[in-house]
Amino acid sequence: MALTRRHFLQVGACGVGAGCLGGCVGTNRATGDTSFTGLMSIEDDIAMGREQHPKLVKEFGGEYENAKLQSYVERLGNKAAEYAEYQEFPYKFTIVNSPIINAFALPGGFVYVSRGLLSYASNEAELMGVISHEIGHVNARHTAERVGSTQLAQGLLLLGTVATGSSAVADVGSSVAGLVLQSFSREQEFEADSLGIRYMSRAGYDPDMMSTFLSTLREYSQVQAKINGKDPSSVDETNLMATHPRTVERVQRAKDQAVGTAPNATLVNREQFLGQIDGMLYGDDPSQGVIDGQTFTHPDLRFRFTVPEGFTMLNSPEQVVAFNEDRTVSIVFDGVTVPEGRNMATYLQRDWSGDVTLRDLEPIDVNGMPGATGWARLNGQQGQADVRGVAIRHGGDQVYRFRFVTQPQQTDAFSERLRQTTYSFARISAETANAIKPHRLLVVPVQSGDTVAGLSKHMPHGRYNEEMFRVLNDLVDGRPLHAGQYVKTIVL
Ligand SMILES: [Zn+2]
Q: Domain Peptidase M48: where (predicted)?
């Protein structure tokens, strides 16, 4: 969260332009299928991608500022896109500054990989596999298919609904991430794999590397689950496996179908890849605030707060959003400036809530900071929602806000936990702030006598350092190190 702007994100009416108003049923050039792509034409795909691109980048931490790495990813992406069926898409490849392992695409050829994904890929071919899979979604026009389906129509309606009403409730759940992070169907994933294998192998890359990356991802999720005290078979909500549910077996099946189509596809390029990612930022970028378990700390803005157990946090430049497991409860945190003389209760009712009259409006004291809270039950097309607003003056004209949204039947059950989140908001000392430093990924040659324990000792995963080092370097199953081999390690 950089808090540079107060403006909220809005998902528009899904960028549907003039073309194809009767609904488009056509044969997809990539899949050969007849698909109902709703009201979206090729031009609409591009318009939607263009419109959502800056918002999505912002939401995932902005672009990762590393010109060398960015041009490398562009070069690989363009190489794969040469083999795509829809050449009229203006393909664009972007690295987002997010530590989560993720990749996604917007319609029209906009493809994203996260910094976290680059850290955990082992070679160029694995990265090619990920990018090609995303180009596959773009060419199969899966988002258009989804927009054309009733399911998404309802989903968009729901997002649209919550965004109506007073400004105090605007945009809950309407984040671009919310839309993009919806997973595709199994069929769509299989299709994206098949197409991805086609593109990467025609570009000369070993298609086996699509499934090796998936194995790494599974290992990563298992260690993450252990770190979070969960069953290792459970999967992180916001990683690649959640947005692209796939299995090694399914990727293998897609590969088997493609056998013989590009017999000379053998490029792996491990060392070239490692040379590119050497020195990149690893984990959270402290200038955007750091998520550690259930706590969000912003060293530059000097505060922290904690969300309830079971909630997943997503940090973006404009806000921090947290959801419970079934995403029925949301917390949106952001910052605004309010003139120093203005009382928080007055601000909450007059400025933030607009026309909605708040119930139980009261001043509160949050760890020595003046604040106010109040709530309202709001009607939307999809039913009612209880929205509680909290505004806290951190100092000067800087005010931070929580917006808690529950369904009326859940409000009582969650009220105490959400109240604790309000009162967890606290200033942090300069010392605490300065202690938060970024980690970097380094590529080093193994010397004789080096051990996994020694090479992983500066990693940020505590007692899981060795396990994470093994995941990072394809050394699970107790595979040994050997002198001269290049490995990735993480240092402060
Ligand atoms: Zn996918």
A: 69-256
Distance 105 CA to ligand 1 centre (A): 9
Q: Looking at residue 478, which CATH number applies to its domain?
A: 3.10.350
Q: How remote is the CA of residue 131 from the centroid of ligand 1, in Å?
A: 10
Give the structural domain span for 307. 286-434
CA of 432 to the centre of ligand 1 (A): 40
Note residues around ion ligand 1 (Cβ under 5 angstroms): 189, 192, 244
Q: How far is Cα 129 from Cα 159, in angstroms, rounded to an integer? A: 32
What is the per-residue pLDDT for 388?
95
pLDDT at 38: 58
In a domain, 134, yes or no: yes
Distance 184 CA to ligand 1 centre (A): 7
Dihedral of alpha carbons 379, 383, 386, 387, sign: negative
List, for the chain, all residue ranges whose pLDDT scores fall below the cut of 50: 3-23, 150-175, 236-237
Tell me which residue of 387, 44, 321 sits closest to 175, measured CA to CA.
321
CATH assignment at residue 295: 3.40.1000.10
Q: How many angstroms separate the alpha carbon of residue 212 from the centre of ligand 1?
A: 16
State the distance from the centre of ligand 1 to the C-alpha of 244, rounded, in angstroms. Answer: 4
Q: What is the pLDDT, as a whole number, of residue 81? A: 98
**Ligand 1 centroid to residue 177 C-alpha, Å:** 15
270 lies in the same domain as 293 = no
Q: How many structural domains compose the chain?
A: 3
* d(C-alpha 313, C-alpha 315), whole Å: 7
Asked if residue 162 and residue 100 are part of one domain, the reply reads yes
User: Phi/psi at 160 (nearest 5 deg)?
Assistant: -60, -40
Model pLDDT, residue 382: 67
Are residues 38 and 169 located together in one domain of the fold?
yes
Residue 278, judged by CB atoms within 10 A of its CB (0-12, 13-18, 19+), counts as middle
